[in-house]
Design a protein that fits this description.
Structural class: alpha+beta
Distance between the termini: 38 Å
Number of strands: 6
Order of helices and strands: HHHHHEHEEEEHHHEH
Number of helices: 10
Strand order of the largest sheet: 1-6-2-3-4-5
């Protein structure tokens, strides 16, 4: 059975290969449009293939340089986290190094400790414990206002913290055991990202479906002209990526800290928002 590291390597290879193939197809299709208008068919084909290969080479180089940059940034964060723990809590620092078998623990202990500190934490689940009737009613009112899908957890003094969304903005409230509601904060940091996902998906759907209109009007024999292929492929890719990044249903969980899970409240979780 493959371990997680091998599975990640295989998934990364398949993803990069698929991405480069799409880059080649789109670049080749776009280059063929003017090439066929100015050159014989055989020469135009070579021009299109050459442009596609250049696009693949540039994309590969960009990914490679980007990966090295991200790797350097990750190493710097790990090193800083290890140095900070060594200064602030020497006992905890030494405990993480005890019985360590990783060669990095001997060659660069600060980075090794920082990597452990920065590793994903075990998921923490927070429940909404035995609410009073007044608190339950108040949370239900807030849930109705916040797209019928909120996340709730019990905090100090049996109060409930409520997290919900409206128009891509997150809202936090505190509901005490008597049903009193206190507004805490808003978070609009993901508005642009969420709306961009929807716009990309919508544009891709329009391009993909709209590309069939010329086929129905001028190419009823089923042939696909070369100039139309990039629009069909580009539209499909945009729609796929946009929909994959923005799955159906509530997205309020994006505003939780990494590893946190709160109790879901509201019918929006069952109906997809």
């Amino acid at each position: 059975m493959l371990d997680n590291s091998r599975m990640r390597i295989v998934a990364g290879f398949v993803g990069r290969t698929t991405g480069l193939a799409l880059v080649w197809l789109v670049a080749t299709g776009v280059a063929l449009i003017p090439a066929r208008a100015m050159l014989p068919s055989g020469n135009a084909r070579y021009i299109g293939w050459g442009v596609g290969l250049l696009a693949v080479a540039w994309t590969w180089r960009f990914w490679h340089r980007r990966g090295r940059k991200l790797g350097a940034e990750t190493s710097a964060r790990e090193l800083a986290a290890g140095e900070e723990l060594r200064r602030d809590d020497a006992a905890a620092y030494r405990a993480l190094l005890d019985d360590a078998c990783d060669p990095l623990a001997f060659s660069d202990p600060d980075r090794y400790v920082g990597r452990l500190v920065a590793a994903p934490k075990t998921p923490q689940r927070y429940a909404w414990d035995t609410p009073t009737q007044a608190q339950q009613a108040a949370v239900e009112r807030l849930t109705d206002e916040l797209e019928r899908a909120t996340l709730v957890r019990t905090i100090d003094d049996h109060a409930a913290e409520v997290l919900g969304m409206k128009n891509d903005v997150a809202y936090r409230y505190l509901v005490d055991s008597a049903g009193g509601i206190t507004f805490l904060s808003t978070d609009d940091s993901k508005v642009r990202m969420l709306r961009t996902f929807r716009r990309v998906a919508g544009t891709g759907i329009v391009l993909f479906i709209g590309s069939f209109v010329p086929l129905l009007i001028w190419h009823r024999d089923g042939s696909v002209p070369g100039w139309l292929a990039p629009f069909m492929l580009g539209g499909f890719v945009m729609a796929f990526l946009g929909l994959a990044a923005q799955p159906p249903g509530p997205t309020v969980f994006r505003f939780l800290d990494p590893g946190e899970r709160w109790q879901e409240e509201g019918s929006g979780w069952d109906t997809g928002g």
